[in-house]
Every structure is written in C-alpha cells, then in structure tokens.
User: What shape does this take?
Amino acid sequence: VIVNGIVLAEDGKKMSKSLRNYTPPMDVMSRFGSDALRLSLMYSTVVKGEDLKYSDDTVREVLKSIIIPLWNAYSFFVTYANIDGAHPQAPPASPANPLDRWLLSEAERLVEDVTAQFEAYDLQRAIDPIVDFIDLLNNWYIRRSRRRFWRSENDTDKTEAYATLHHVLVKLVTVAAPIIPFVTEEIYGNLKADDAPQSVHLCDYPVTDRDKRDYELEEKMAVTRQAVSMGRAIRSMHNLKIRQPLRAIHLVTRESSEKRILREMEDIIREELNVKEVVFRENEEDLVEYSAKANFRKLGRELGKDMQEAAAKIQGLSGREIQGLIEGTTLSMDIAGRTLDLTQDDVIIQRTERENLRVLNEGSLTVALDPEITDDLRQEGVVRDLIRQVQNLRKESGLDVADRIRLELSGPPELHEAVQNNEEYLMGETLAVSLSWSDDGAQATESATTRHGSAEPGSAAREVSLGGLTCSVALERVG
Assistant: This one.
C-alpha cells in the first residue's frame, strides 16, 4: 500500500483558504514552473506517508539546484553544437577519451539505479541518482571537457564529445521524464533523432546494458573526485580561492589501489585543484602530528579502577604506535599486571596539521594543501580573476562563445607586470587576438568608455577590482 503524508502549510497548520497560509498552486507554477513543484513534492518525505510543511523556498531550491543545472547542460550542448553544425545521432562505439567512456558507463548505472528504486516503489530514492548524475554531468564531465568543445578544428575527439553528450542527455531526460515531464519533453523534442518517437513520453523506458559499464573506470573517477572534493573543501574552509594557484597538494592513502589510481589521475587532480605539483607521501605523519586519548566509554567498563593508568599510557603513545593502530594493528599494553590488547576503536585519535599545511582526512585518504602564495602564484591568481571579469564582459556585451576580441587594459604597474608574465594564457582564455596596455588608468578608462561604452553590441568597457588592484577593461569584437 502506497500512502502519502499530509501537505501542511509552512506554519505546520492545515492549508486553509480562510487563513491564507499558503501560496495558490497556480501562482507557484507561474513563478517556478510545474516541474519544480512536482519534483519538490516527489523528492520529499510526503511520498513515504510522512507529513510535509510546504514552503515556496523548497520549490525555489529545487528549481535552482536541479532543474536549472539540467537545462544548463542542455544549453551548453546546443550552444556549441549550433556553432559547429554538429548533429550526432548515436553514441561513439569505443571513444578514445576516458571521460567519454566514463560518462557512458555512468549513464548505464543511472538507468540501473533509478529502475531499481522505481520497481521498489521508492519515488524519493529514485530521484537521488538523477540529481547525482546532473551534478557529475555539469561539474565534472562538461567542466573537464570545455576545451574539447572550444577547439576550432572538428577533430575526432570533439566529434566523440558531441556524440557522448548528446546520447547521455537524451538518456537522462528519458529516465527523468516521469518526474519532470515538461522540461524533459522540451529537451527531448530538440535532441531526438529523426526516426525517434515524437514525444519522450512515447519512448520505451531505458533498460540498462551492463556490457557498457566500465566498473574499473567508474572506480577511478570516484577516487579522483573524492580527492578533488577534499581539496576543494580545504580551500573553502581556509578561504583559499579556487582561482588562486597553490604550490602543491600532498596525498597519502593506506590503500594500494587508491594510490595507483591517484598516480594515474595526477594530471586531472593538479588541474582541478589549481596546484603546481601533486606530491605523494608514504606516511600520514609527514603531514600531521598524532596524539591519542583513551576512549573512556569503550574501555571504562573493562578496566574500571585501572582506567586512569591506561589513559595515561595511551596519551603517551608515539606517533609510530598511533600510525600502527590506524593501519589496523593491535598494540599490547601492560595495565595493572594484565595485558590489554589495544585497537583503533579503543582510542580517539587527533591529528594536528604540520606547519604550513592544511589537512583533511576521510577514511583511508588524507589530503593536504600548501597555502603559501609566492609572488608568481599571486600574479597568476590575479590574472585568473581578470579572465573571469573579461568573460563576464564578453557575455554581457552579447558576444558568441567563439567570437575573437581586441582587449585593452590599464592599471597600476604591479598589475601590468602580472599581465605581462601571463599574457599568452590571458589571451588564449579570452580569445583575444591583440592586447594593448595603458599605465594611465583614468585616461584609459575615459577613452575606453567613450569608444566602447555605448550600447553597440560586441563592445564594452568596465572598471573592475582584482584583489585590491583597480583595472580598466575594454573589449571589442573582431570582424
């Protein structure tokens, strides 16, 4: 028996027209779309017989965090496919790029996981794999593949990227159609093959093909994404902006398979975390200093009056002895004339970061970042911020993603030095065919505003702040 809970107003009371304690459904759908409302309800505990305090904020969050990212992935494909005139009809049979093989495998896993939950009548858990897939599609595959789509030449790698992304988008919307029927119908209608059914709701529901799963590659990407996620978490905790390059990331793992994977994926980790070097350490002690305290709740019942003696000895354990406990060994200790076999569960292990390192541990993996920022790293970070400002200006001025520009900059000498030292990188990222510089910021800003500050499409000028430095930026479309 499937039983829904009761949908209550945000204040926990019954929804009532007289109390006016809820937003009329038609108003909600007009603001956020009917798919967002439908998904917010299906993704809640109300489908498991529990009561729900409805809030417009929940619908807004579903729109922001799930539906818009899905549409963004679709929009990314359409934007570049229109530029290149790409019309893929089938996925690549055996793509050379591991990112393509991985995404095709993950798409099959998506079908398998969602189907299993649907067959168990668990609507809420059936949505989890869809949400996870949209995240990895946007924040891993597309972000790591952007340069493949930017290339001007239509090489095999780009063709396979288009075919892969098209295939998984169609599979994704077919899987998600019962949950978000309108957005998926819109996307499917524009992406479907010529001989495909006219509506996504007329398609057969996908059946997973386990022969297309690459379990080893899925594991490799999972380990790599965990390391990257931990590195980003360290940056966030210590306010180290992702656009600011850092000197090194240090990795320690007790699992030999993890270490092999991380070494194989070293280039991806370096690029994703914006570090210059990936350093593999053999011992976690190279990154942290250990200390241990007795787990009184665990040992107290066993040791009774001898607990204080055990606590003192545990507090005196060496770093090497604590490392052994972490690795799963048993440490024998004499307590009041009897032997106590100590395991990791008997102690509370504390890790203290070594000087100039920021450390995070999850299970068998320990990640550390070196936060020291040299002059060269600081300059590169400033230029990366500048690139972001130029890209925003490109978008606001109506430029297409492939348009080339002339770029004019002005600012203080230290900014000029940073630009000079990273000029090739700056021009390549912004598609600039020329770069001119003026040290007179006020005059350059006035001149640029006069020439580019109008509403004429393809030209724009702005003054921006880059880490405390003021820069005048002006761009103009070429051709």
